[in-house]
Design a protein that fits this description.
mainly alpha, single chain
Length: 769
């Protein structure tokens, strides 16, 4: 009877294990999706940022690289089976719990980082997730078998885990230094005006680049292939120098022919080959991060059910060599390729790295922080000291060869690249070499870390982090690196917790975790869509082409109209929320302050472009266009101060506005919003406007505020209005007068800008001051 009961218990356990294995396979698909979304940045940034080819061509080349690379990842699959813990000390159900906890955590963690567009390491996440859940099960086993004589160090492969972590950290330093050094040397040779010099020795440089890329992919990655037999791998390793010499010779000859006979910019094919190579290296190195754990769980399950005691047999068999079939790799590759084409989050993550490496100053995604300012000051002092002790002649030579291409070189170019093809080729050459070497050594280093730090090193050498942008770029790099450390901590803790929940609560725990993960993914999706909508709204303000003076001016005022509309709507909502003490709505409007400041900065940058065109065409009246900048900034200042003051007043739970104050501010609100709306309409019509009506409404608003300020003085004397309330009241009413004045001033400038002699007189006699 007891044997029968034991048999029924075992059968039920195996049935649950069947379910868990099925879930692991399903999660492998989800993990491929979120993983590729995060890691697409590794091989797309250089080609997209340099505009080496049309976007679709780049995507096709990357897709082929992924499909080729998945067949080289056989050797990496061992990491999931035995790289972090000793499988011979665990049973099949225990390993399935470990693997399920890993997959749940991995999907949740990567999706979170993808939502915010931060590239993180799928390698670090998988390593620390395996470590966290393995430690959780090890502690449970130690508590249940205290007399076993084993300790935690016996269960966990600390030596391998430390080697992996050390390799990852070392790769950060090596990647940054390699990218910086190779880019510095390349730039000294070719300068920013590299096209003329490519004709003379570009073929030799390209031959070296293609040799490095091909050698590390083919030679160093060959022993992880699923289709190369050992004899072929041995032959390749034995004849490495012959292969390298052949690749260099053939590449240099072909590139020289392309330069001399067809006048081809050889950096474009080099970048595209590098994109293929890095996509291939990514797939070979990182595929284990997505399907290694589910495959390990499947192997454990197959091994267990083939034995006489599937629930209690230990999994020492996983420590041996297990062949993964090529068709499984190819199916995974196809899923990765589909994700690459359809994922919007993948493009968000890619844009982060491109923005941090762009050559010119522009709209920065990150703000400065004290640590970035300290780092910039440190390097500035260091370079100043080096410059002081260096011979002046050397400094002049280096400065001349590292002098960037002038802005005028891109006049007439529709979409200026974020950086040039020379830097893109260096990024790909160095990154693919480091990643492929690690793959050959079976070190699951992070392709994200390597490609990101190589790109940052090359942009550093190219002086892309100039004095106008350095603090923001350094903040961005620190944010990404900080996210990497958070990845390790979150992955370990979350996987540890998930492992305990699954072990103690069984299927109800699994179901609860799945519901939680599904809920968080939906929430992240909505947040990402909101971020994308905001980004699209900001993108509208970009004035890409500035060729015709009048059309550029009209477009600029059209953008100002849209900006005023957004401020008008937000300000009206903020007023109503203040009257009702609606803190949530006020906080929502406060979050828009930064967005509106960014759109204003873009409009100002557009004005600079128009002014440069104005200078080239020798037009008059530039003073007024400079005035637009001052007016916009003051409007933004008034809007920001009003929203922040209102939010902080309600958040601090200070006394709300008095009924009389609410009625007065409602009148002020009506007038300021009316002025905003009328000027907005005028800008959209793009025609001369009679300012007298709008000017009279401004005078009425100013007189109204003067009257209400007198009423406020009476309330202060009666002590019905407390100090903080009075300060806020005066600040808001004063801001409204100031914003209204600046808006009417913008209308004056608009009239003067239109090609009509009546424009200047249309706003005369307003006397706003």
């Amino acid at each position: 009877m007891s044997n029968l009961h034991k048999g029924n218990k075992t059968t039920m356990g195996i049935e649950i294990c069947y379910v868990i294995v099925g879930m692991l396979i399903l999660f492998a698909i989800f993990d491929l999706i979120v993983g590729v979304t995060n890691d697409a940045v590794n091989f797309l940034t250089s080609s997209i940022g340099s505009k080496a080819a049309p976007f679709k061509i780049i995507m096709i080349i990357a897709s082929v690289g992924i499909l080729a690379g998945v067949t080289f990842s056989e050797g990496m699959m061992e990491v999931a089976r035995k790289g972090i813990f000793h499988p011979e000390l665990f049973t099949m159900p225990e390993l399935l719990i470990i693997f399920l906890a890993v997959m749940l955590t991995d999907i949740l963690l990567l999706d979170l980082f993808n939502t915010y567009g931060l590239p993180t390491s799928t390698t670090v996440s998988i390593v620390f997730e395996l470590l966290g859940s393995a430690v959780a099960l090890s502690i449970i086993k130690l508590a249940a078998h205290a007399d076993s004589g084993l300790g935690l160090v016996d269960y966990i492969n600390y030596a391998k885990a430390i080697t992996i972590v050390f390799g990852i950290l070392l790769s950060i330093i090596v990647a940054f230094a390699s990218g910086a050094i190779v880019q510095f040397i390349s730039r000294l040779i070719f300068t920013f005006n590299y096209k003329k010099r490519l004709k003379y020795y570009g073929a030799l440089w390209g031959g070296v680049a293609l040799t490095v890329i091909t050698f590390f992919i083919l030679v160093k990655g060959a022993k992880g292939s699923t289709f190369m037999d050992p004899q072929m791998v041995t032959w390749i390793k034995t004849h490495s120098f012959i292969i390298m010499g052949g690749i260099f010779t053939v590449s240099a000859i072909i590139l020289q022919i392309l330069i001399s006979a067809f006048n081809v910019n050889i950096l474009k094919p080099i970048v595209l080959v590098g994109t293929f190579a890095l996509a291939m290296a990514f797939a070979a190195n990182d595929l284990v991060n997505f399907i290694g754990v589910p495959l390990a769980g499947l192997n454990a399950f197959k091994t267990a059910i083939a034995s006489s005691d599937p629930m209690n047999i230990t999994m020492g068999a996983l420590g041996g060599k297990i062949h993964t079939q090529t068709f499984i790799m190819l199916i995974a590759g196809i899923i990765m390729v589909i994700t690459l084409w359809v994922s919007r989050k993948a493009r968000t993550v890619t844009e982060t790295e491109i923005s941090l490496g762009q050559q010119d100053e522009g709209m920065e995604r990150f703000e400065s922080v004290w640590l970035s300012r300290r780092i910039v000051n440190l390097f500035h002092s260091l370079f100043t000291s080096v410059k002081a002790i260096s011979p002046p002649i050397i400094g002049k030579i280096v400065a001349r060869r590292l002098s960037p291409v002038p802005e005028d070189a891109y006049v007439g170019v529709k979409e200026k690249p974020s950086f040039d093809l020379l830097r893109a080729s260096v990024n790909l050459m160095v990154a693919s070499a480091v990643v492929s070497l690690a793959t050959s050594l079976k070190l699951p280093l992070s392709t994200t870390y390597v490609t990101f730090m190589v790109a940052m090193g090359s942009s550093f050498s190219d002086q892309a982090w100039g004095r106008e942008s350095a603090v923001y770029r350094v903040t961005g790099v620190l944010t990404v690196i900080g996210g990497w450390f958070m990845t390790a901590l979150i992955a370990f803790v979350a996987s540890f917790i998930c492992g305990n929940i699954i072990y103690h609560f069984k299927m109800p725990g699994v179901v609860g975790l799945m519901i939680f993960v599904f809920f968080m993914i939906l929430k992240n999706k909505k947040r990402h869509e909101g971020n994308e909508k905001t980004k699209e709204e900001i993108t509208i303000y970009h004035l890409e082409e500035v060729e015709d003076f009048q059309s550029s001016v009209s477009a600029t005022f059209g953008h100002i109209a849209l900006h005023l509309r957004n401020i008008r709507l937000s300000l009206g909502t903020a007023f109503d929320a203040l009257f009702q003490e609606d803190l949530e709505t006020l906080r929502e409007q406060r979050r828009k302050v930064k967005q509106f400041q960014m759109s204003s900065n873009i409009i100002i940058a557009n004005i600079f472009k128009v002014l440069r065109l104005l200078q080239r065409t020798d037009r008059k009246g530039s003073f007024n266009y400079y005035q637009i900048i001052r007016r916009l900034q003051k409007i933004n200042d008034g809007y920001r101060d009003t929203v922040i003051r209102s939010t902080m007043h309600v958040a601090n739970r200070h006394k709300g506005l008095l009924p009389a104050q609410i009625e007065e501010l409602k009148e002020v609100k009506t007038e300021i919003l009316f002025i905003f709306e009328q000027v907005e309409i005028a800008f959209n019509k793009n025609d001369i406007v009679d300012c007298n009506h709008i000017g009279s409404r401004f005078h009425y608003l100013r007189d109204l505020v003067d009257e209400y300020n007198a009423n406020q003085i009476a309330r202060i004397r009666e002590e019905s209005s407390k100090t903080r309330l009075s300060i806020m009241y005066y600040a808001i009413s004063g801001n409204c007068v100031m914003m209204a004045k600046q808006t009417v001033k913008l209308l004056e400038i608009f009239n003067e800008a239109l090609p009509s002699e009546d424009g200047a007189s249309a706003c005369r006699g307003l006397h706003l001051d």
